[in-house]
Every structure is written in structure tokens, then in C-alpha cells.
Amino acid sequence: MTTTRPDPAGESFADLLGGRRAAIDATLGPLAFGIGFAAAGQSLEWGVGAAIAVSTAVGGWRLLRGDKFGAVLLGLLGVVVAALIALYTGRPEDFFFIRVATNAASALCWAISIALRWPLLGVVVGGVLGQRGSWRRDPALLRAYSRASWIWVLQYVVRLAVWLPLYWSGQVEALSITTAALTWPLVAACLAVSWYVMRRSLPAGHPGLRHPALADEPANV
């Protein structure tokens, strides 16, 4: 009988984290900003107005569907703060400053978490599964989460490689388009690839994400 690799808990990271839907919503405000900015003859005010209007409409729709108010408010607040920064500096490209900065910080934090043997993918998924830090006592899970977390680091690095030159050169329309292209499609790809890496990293017969095979001490990664 051939031993196959496990299907950890029969779920994917997309099922557990729900990242695709949130990422799709996150593209609409910046895309509306770019469209409003270009359609009104490169008007910062029209771009800001379009972004806030679209984000408010999306937030209202999410509330009607039963989404948590805090999550909806956080998404809208991100767009409002980005708009205020751009209005304050008078530079339309500064609407994207927060995204550039948070992606740089995220890449650094994820890399550091792997080095400290607290890979953030394990922290997030373990939190969703209510495991606290018990997954770290499973050497196989710790190793798999660490390897899969590098895919998330790469996701942020790819965005920065595209966005930084555009931001420095003030290419607002290009920033708007690439924000849409590198948000939900890249998140979907990241979820799929990191899940694949996770599954390939776990040994045959491992009980899966929901059932850490506890050991006294985590193994070296």
C-alpha cells in the first residue's frame, strides 16, 4: 500500500483565513482612486472622493451581509487615512504610501518571525484553530510553517519591487493598476503556493494542522 502525504485537516489556508475576499475588497478603493484621478484630469480631490465613496459602499454591503463592524471599519479607515495623507502632502502618489510602508514592514516582520522560530503563518493559523503556541512543539509543523512563511515574505518583496519605482516616479495611474493586480491575485497565489509548500513539507502520516504531534522541544528549522 502506498503512503501518501497528508491533507492537513482537509482544509486550505484560503478556507481558514478567508484572505481572497478581503484582498478583493482592498483593491477597490485604490482602483477607484486611480479612475477618479485620471477621469477628472489628474484631480487629487476627485480621486480621494471616488476612493472613499467606493470603500463606503463596499463597507455598507459587507455590513448588510453580516460582516463584523470592526473589520469593515478598519478597511474603511485605511482608505480614509491614505486619502488624508495625500491631501496633506498634495502628492497623489502618497495615497499609496501606507501600502508601500506596510508591505515593507510586513516583509521584515515575517522574515524575523521565521528566524525567531515563531513563523507568523503558524501564529495566525494556530490562532484561528485555537492552538495558541502548541503547534511549535510539533517539529514537523514548525518546520512546515517556517518554509511556507517564506512564500509570504516573497509576496511582499514582489510588491515592493514593483511599487517602489512607481511611487518614487509619481506614476499614480500605474500604482492604482498594479495595486489591483498585486493584491487579490497575488494573495490568492500566495495562499495556494504556501498551502502546497505546507503539505509537501509535512511528513507522510502526519495528523494535520488541527492535531499537532507534540514534542517536548521544537526541532531546529
Automatic annotation (TrEMBL):
Keyword Protein transport: no
TM region(s), chain numbering: 46-64, 71-90, 110-129, 150-168, 174-197
Keyword annotations: Membrane, Transmembrane, Transmembrane helix
Top-rank taxon: Bacteria
Protein name stated in the entry: DUF3159 domain-containing protein
Species, as recorded: Catellatospora bangladeshensis
Species lineage: Bacteria, Bacillati, Actinomycetota, Actinomycetes, Micromonosporales
